[in-house]
Structures are given as structure tokens and as C-alpha cells.
Amino acid sequence: MIDHIGFPVSDLAAARSFYDRALASLGISLMMEVTEEMTGGHGAHLGYGRDGNPFFWISSGGGPAGGTCHVAFAAPDHATVDAFHKAALAAGGRDNGAPGLRPHYHASYYGAFILDPDGNNIEAVHHGEPT
């Protein structure tokens, strides 16, 4: 089981604006900020999560942003996947797959894909029947 994941972004302020808005639709919010001073010059880090657990991190340090990362967030239902897609587009993300069934993964795989400001493929997915 993965405890947390993180990757560098090219513009931490722009990424923060995007993720603050896009992840709110999934009940995920900024929980922790680690400054560059706190890391001894190894970049600033923002931890997003819920229930006291920051499990998704973005940072200004740790190497150049590569735009090659894919992260899928679990959604409780189809409506939440739809809300994520709408919120992420409004936050400046680029469509990389509108909400819908992806039967090539499995019969009830319902997902939506967005490219963040660095080109990372961010997904919300619900594995189950519509509720």
C-alpha cells in the first residue's frame, strides 16, 4: 500500500491554485506546507489529503518537472468524477479524457482525466455502478 506520492512542479504557486480548486471536488485539501527554509534549501512542499493524512505532495524542489506522472484519485461515485473534471477545467487544467466509462479497463470503470499545468495526467475514478 502506498502511503503518499509526490512530484516536482515548475511553478508551485500555479500548481497550488490548480490543485486547491481541482481536488476540493474530491474532498481533498491542502493540509501541510513545508517551506524551503524548513527543508534546508531543498524546495518547498505542499501536502494535500483528508482526515489528517497528507498523501499527495507537490514541490518546488527535487528535480525538474517532467510532465510524465499519472495519479488517479478515488471518487465515491460518478457525480464526483464529473465534479472533479469540471473543477479541474475551471482551475486551468486541460481535458485529457472527459468523464465516462472506460470498459477497456473493466466494465464499471468510470474516470475523467486532466492535464495539470505541468502536463501531469491527473485522474478521478470510480470503480462501480452509478449511484
Automatic annotation (TrEMBL):
<feature type="domain" description="VOC">
    <location>
        <begin position="1"/>
        <end position="127"/>
    </location>
</feature>
<dbReference type="GO" id="GO:0051213">
    <property type="term" value="F:dioxygenase activity"/>
</dbReference>
<keyword id="KW-0223">Dioxygenase</keyword>
<keyword id="KW-0560">Oxidoreductase</keyword>
<dbReference type="GO" id="GO:0016829">
    <property type="term" value="F:lyase activity"/>
</dbReference>
<dbReference type="Pfam" id="PF00903">
    <property type="entry name" value="Glyoxalase"/>
</dbReference>
<protein>
    <submittedName>
        <fullName>Catechol 2,3-dioxygenase-like lactoylglutathione lyase family enzyme</fullName>
    </submittedName>
</protein>
<dbReference type="InterPro" id="IPR029068">
    <property type="entry name" value="Glyas_Bleomycin-R_OHBP_Dase"/>
</dbReference>
<keyword id="KW-0456">Lyase</keyword>
<dbReference type="InterPro" id="IPR037523">
    <property type="entry name" value="VOC_core"/>
</dbReference>
<dbReference type="InterPro" id="IPR004360">
    <property type="entry name" value="Glyas_Fos-R_dOase_dom"/>
</dbReference>
